[in-house]
Structures are given as structure tokens and as C-alpha cells.
Amino acid sequence: MLKIDRLELGPVQTNCYIISGEGKQCIIFDPGEEAGKIQDLLKRKQLTPLAILLTHAHFDHIGAVDELREKYKIPVYLHHKERDFLGRPNLNGSGKYAALPDYRVADADEWITDEPSLEIGPFNMELFHTPGHSPGSVSFYFPEDRFAIVGDTLFSGSIGRTDLAEGSEQLLLKSIRESLLTLPEETFLFPGHGPETTPKQEQQHNPFLRM
């Protein structure tokens, strides 16, 4: 049984998820900022990270990537369609806000393409390319434990914004309906911001999915 720890980090309280198993190994999803808080949790729980996985490359999901990658000597995974986002503020969204510094992160170590699944150590997950919020958004589904990390594709009662670089509302809704709402209805969906939800809850109550 996998364990899920969530930290709300950075200027917009982005959810960073740390998924761990019985062997004290873990993977880190979307370390958006405040690397020290992530390191403190890993030390406190005696966890050894194996990789950093990014649901997408907007600034609020990547701020602690380089510091953690260097400290733990672990690879970073990102969809290849966002190859240019990590180093370009105009694409990762940080250039849109005068109050923010320009976020620039080194290239990913591993590029996700069209593979249907991914295995990292003891962690096995199915991959769904869920573009719309961004061109390379990926959702990571753990079928045995009945949960998915969905980034900013779908929220409890809402959907991801589509006014940033290469966003598309039509494509976003298609991704949600074809990849996330088709999961078993009680699957826990863990988004990039806010509380978890389920396909059943969103089908019944999400106003954006009635359009």
C-alpha cells in the first residue's frame, strides 16, 4: 500500500506529492518551491527519493527541481512537448507576472513520449497524456492503489486554466472526459491545487463538465 504525503508550497500553494512504499523509497511529484520543506519531510520519514516527476512545467510546479535534483542526484521526468518550458519564462508562466522572478530550470533528464506506463524502482504507474492546461500535461495513475496525480488538468469543482502558453479549453475538456472521467468512479484524483476529488464527484458536481 502506497503512502501519500502532500505539501502546499510556493506563492500559489502548489501541491507537491511524495509517494512512498514499504521500502522507504519515494518519488516526488511537482516540487514547486521551498525545497527545504521537502527535504525536512524526507529526513523526518527517512525516505530515499528515486526521481522527480512533473505533471507539467509551469513555474509553480518546478521551483525546487534543480535544488532537489542536485542534492539527491535523481532524474527529472517531463513530457517532451514541454522541452522548452523549463528554461523560458514566457512559456512556463513566470514571465507573465511582474511580482515573480523569472523561473529557469535545467533540462529534464528523461523525456516522456507516448509510453503507456512507467516503472521507477517499486513504483508502477500508467501514463495519460492530458493536454489542454499545457501541451505536455501528464496524469500518473496508480491502479493498484486507486489514485492518480493529475496536476492542473482537473480540480475539485473546477478545471485548469487555459490562458497560458499553448493552452486549449477544448483539448482540456477532451482530456478530462477521455482519460480521467473514465477511471473507476471512486479513484482519488490528486490535483495541483486544492483538495482531492473523484471522477464520480466531478461528473455530478463540476459545472465546467456540463458544458
UniProtKB/TrEMBL annotation:
Coiled coil: none annotated. Residues 13-193 form the Metallo-beta-lactamase domain. InterPro entries: MBL_Glyoxalase_II (IPR051453), Metallo-B-lactamas (IPR001279), RibonucZ/Hydroxyglut_hydro (IPR036866). Keywords: Hydrolase, Metal-binding, Zinc. It holds the Pfam family Lactamase_B. Its cofactor is Zn(2+). Residues 190-211 are annotated as: Disordered. Residues 198-211 have a biased composition (Polar residues). Transmembrane segments: none annotated. One of its GO terms (molecular function) is hydrolase activity. This is Metallo-beta-lactamase domain-containing protein.
